[in-house]
Amino acid sequence: xxxxxxxxxxxxxxxxxxxxxxxxxxxxxxxxxxxxxxxxxxxxxxxxxxxxxxxxxxxxxxxxxxxxxxxxxxxxxxxxxxxxxxxxxxxxxxxxxxxxxxxxxxxxxxxxxxxxxxxxxxxxxxxxxxxxxxxxxxxxxxxxxxxxxxxxxxxxxxxxxxxxxxxxxxxxxxxxxxxxxxxxxxxxxxxxxxxxxxxxxxxxxxxxxxxxxxxxxxxxxxxxxxxxxxxxxxxxxxxxxxxxxxxxxxxxxxxxxxxxxxxxxxxxxxxxxxxxxxxxxxxxxxxxxxxxxxxxxxxxxxxxxxxxxxxxxxxxxxxxxxxx
Length: 324
Fold this sequence. Notes:
The protein is of the alpha/beta class and 324 residues long. It has twelve helices and ten strands. The strands form three sheets. The protein has a five-stranded mixed sheet, sandwiched between helices.
């Protein structure tokens, strides 16, 4: 297991505690301290794990790619599991991934973790994003060797060592901001099978503040969807239609216009049905699904901001600025 960690003192102990208790297989844990300025290395050394320093970051490289590559070069296993420091694993996380990958003949298996959300903003935004991801990167398409669609989630990315070496590992995707998706794409194009799905053997809370959530999705969001401005417009219009027909129903009720109330109510019900049918594929709790209605305009705004940031050529993450 390779855990790249940059300034992860708030979450690393929980992650390593869950990884240290894995059952059913032999494994090593390598924590790659990615030039942290907090207590990340000190916390990692509390556990019986191997702690190394990431190589000096080469010009133009993604910091996470550099950390993963540093860990991969010293790892000894036939399988490599890359997992983020903000994840928490069930005791069977590793063995289940290995058994599933081998039984399905997959050279790369990736789980999309159970997402933990706290507070109204996280609950509103995250289901909207993950519903769009589920529609864009459908697991059945990713797993189909005849489909060009490829995806992976870097929070749990298990790859066979020989396939990893053949495609050049993280060094081959060093300049990619979406290194997990690009890695999966290269593995699939090389003729290997992918396996990708949602799983609750691993869980994560991706962002612990609005600022981190805004910065993180600004870095990634516009790259994840082929037509970001069109998608942002669609979701903004969807929200406005729901708002408009909600007001129309209330006005019809106030004026005892039962015909108008019936027509407006029918359209509103159809809009809500289509919305919640899409949102349920994100696998969030019912309260988050309800609040996701208010996440639509926030998603649109964030997607446009991500698009503009990439057009300007610079995005930032954890104190590093990436120019494109």
